[in-house]
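Could you join me in thinking about how sequence relates to backbone shape in a protein? Would you write everything just below, so we can both look at the same thing?
***
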Amino acid sequence: MEIKAKNVFVTGSTRGIGLGIAHEFARCGANVVLNGRSEISEEVLNQFSDYDGKIIGISGDISQEADAKRMVKEAISEFGGLDVLVNNAGITNDKLVLKMTEADFEQVLKINLTGTFNMTQAVLKTMTKARQGAIINISSVVGLTGNVGQANYAASKAGLIGFSKSVAREVAARGVRVNVIAPGFIASDMTDAIPDKMKDIILGQIPMKRIGKPKEVAQVAVFLAEQEYLTGQIIAIDGGMTMI
């Protein structure tokens, strides 16, 4: 798929990895929907003023089925169709299982996993009718390995992998591809706040001995959108943390 002039919807794209992915697609000439639960600020929109493609903001809660359908409908009305969906939006609510409530567990799954289901279902009719499209789901290395204090987050991100492989099988014959990116330790506001001593411990677990950049994850997302014979795969961009 040639990315230039294609229509791309990136959920959770006002900061961090999602914002980096939106920038990379825009740099390649795509029309991009920026998304978040709150209204997209002018400050964020202005970051995209130098790109050739059309950039719009559509806010809403992906965990709500009606909101997901409305947002996709708005994007299709504005652009005339959708070629790429990047399901990036997600939250954490870290606690040990012994202290985790059912609400703590369900909240993370509702946004990270059900939200991805809602958005995917909302775009599939358009994509299968066009007999082309790419869905890219952002999981995590935690979904591959688990992590102390993140049973809810790990369950949601592991669930994304099984969900993606199932949908990939369902829609492959219609020319729609579904793949997964599992980022490792990527620079963000969250990682900036981690004490240096803890960062040193984390870096010791990364064979490449450095933190990843949002742009590096974004480049993988564009690659997956471009490759027309690649589906149902998981790419861990983690500096070697989960190599086997």
Notes: The first strand starts at residue 7 and ends at 10.
